[in-house]
Amino acid sequence: MFAALALARHGHQVTLIERDELSKTPAEDAPTWSRSGVPHFGQPHAFILHGRAGLKEHFSDVYRDLIDAGAVDVDARPKRPGTVVPEDEELQYLAVRRPVIE
């Protein structure tokens, strides 16, 4: 989806093919969605360090939308030994539910 978004925003026509029929209901209704093509659909998802950084740098609007929809930055800096420095800001990942991503 990241590649499709990048290509579309650079003027390319993109077609995403989805195995499952998609629901047009709010993400809160996700437990009722039938997603047999995504066996891990109900499990937690995350954009790890570089994925989060890429979202913030290239798709800041999508990053903000994910935060607004309930995704949260998880600060991994306290797990790092030593003193935290400003450059360590990148040591965070974005925790999100799959339905919010979709």
Task: Describe what this molecule looks like in 3D.
The protein is built from four helices and three strands. It is globular. By secondary structure, it is an alpha+beta fold.
In short:
With 102 residues, this protein is an alpha+beta fold. It is built from four helices and three strands.
Main structural class: alpha+beta
Flag low-confidence runs. Answer: none
| Main sheet makeup | 3 strands, antiparallel
Strand proportion, as a percent range, falls in: 5-15%
Average pLDDT across residues? Answer: 83
Number of strands: 3
In the sheet with the most strands, the strands line up as 1-3-2
Broad shape: globular
Give the N-to-C terminal Cα separation: 9 Å
Q: How many domains, in number, for the residues?
A: 1
**Oligomeric state of this protein:** single chain
Quickly count the helices.
4
List the helices and strands and how they pair.
Blueprint (H helix, E strand, L loop, with lengths): L1 H8 L34 E4 L1 H10 L1 H9 L3 E4 L16 E6 H4 L1
Antiparallel strand pairs: 1-3, 2-3
Helix pairs in contact: 2-3
Keywords:
single chain; alpha+beta
